[in-house]
Amino acid sequence: MVLIEFWGGLGVIGGSKITIRDGGHRVMLDIGMDIPSGADLFRLPVRPRPGRELADRLRMGAAPRVPGLFDPAVLAEGDPLAAPAEPTSVFVSHPHIDHVGLAGWVRPETPVYAHTDAVDVLRALDASGQGLPGGDPDWRRLTAGEQVTVGPMRVECVPVDHDVPGASGYLVHTSGGTLAFTGDIRFHGRHPERSWAFADRAAACDVLVTEGTTLGWDMTGPVRTEDDVARDFAAALAETPGLVLLSLYPRDVERVHEFLALAKDAGRTVLWPARVAAFLRELGVADVAEGLPQGDPGGYVVVPDPDDLPALLDLPVGPGRPDSVFVHANGEPLGPFEPRWAPFTDWLAALSVPLRQIGCSGHATQDDLHVLLERTRPQVLFPIHTTAPTRLHPPTGTTRVIAQYGVAYGMDGREV
């Protein structure tokens, strides 16, 4: 019998972890760092204890107690999780911490797969000193359409559009039918054809597990696209006589390339923090510069380190320089839900630097999620990665199940 279990991503945005068990083998889809629904016990200024990072998280309920998944060397002495379980293979949908953050602690014999472009990002992060807690596993690369056999199951990699290279969904073909997993997906980015191709590939699947991030958001107003983001950044460059400061998520490599080109066209050089510059160089991004502006501030865009706000004092901004702007394009700190957001906005206010937010979402709109359901028409639907799963309304003939943590479900959606 095929069993489906959910170990994260329930009632929260992020932290996805799903296991599928069939014929004495186990597939795990995503292995993200847990995103708490309340206060994060491990947020700054808390510093993880070296060698105890996972053990402490497990003790405080901030990591999943999945039997036989983690390396016994990183568990507390006597933890029953160290006992081996059925052979397991892990498949990562994309290189965001809430989908891959625990991969460095899996058992050494457990293979960990991801799309080859995602592996490039993860290796570049590791090489620039920003790797996963516990170190990178021995990544196994996948290409579009490639299938991996895990016991009686076949796991198929299907690229989707998201805001990071290598984003993929997966089809898990089991002895009891096919489960489709979107990973994080959108249909309004630069490559909607990838996501619609996934929808077509997943058509008539037995089970669909989909992210539903935007279900809990107020979606009034037009949907912002990458074209809107590029247009607004170009406008900020043209309208600002002084320094432009920028918050940009470096893993969104496609946007990095676009912003570098727009800055060059505007006669400006983008200056990155050292660790970000190292990461981008590892990925082969050209014209990566760092340091402080020299000469006319109007010739530069500076990406400050979000963890070093006092370094803003080294820049030509402040109450006497009202000609600057801070452009926030989905970079860090990510938003008001982050503990770092309030200090960030306080520093900008104290320095009289206006904040202009120009980003667009990496997640499917509510309307597109419902179109996805109409095109796939699964027998069973599990909405995860959302604070509002009941707002995803299935079409006639589809059973929606609001999953519970650690409960086993059959392919018919019933608890086992």
Automatic annotation (TrEMBL):
Sorted UniProt keywords: Exonuclease, Hydrolase, Nuclease, RNA-binding
Q: Which domain of life is it from?
A: Bacteria
One Pfam family here: Lactamase_B_2
Q: Spell out the InterPro entries in the cross-references.
A: Metallo-B-lactamas (IPR001279), RibonucZ/Hydroxyglut_hydro (IPR036866), RNase_J_2 (IPR042173)
Record SMART domains: Lactamase_B
* Metallo-beta-lactamase domain span: 14-243
CDD domains with a match to the protein in the record = metallo-hydrolase-like_MBL-fold
- Protein name, please? MBL fold metallo-hydrolase
| Organism per entry | Streptantibioticus parmotrematis
What lineage does the source organism belong to? Bacteria, Bacillati, Actinomycetota, Actinomycetes, Kitasatosporales
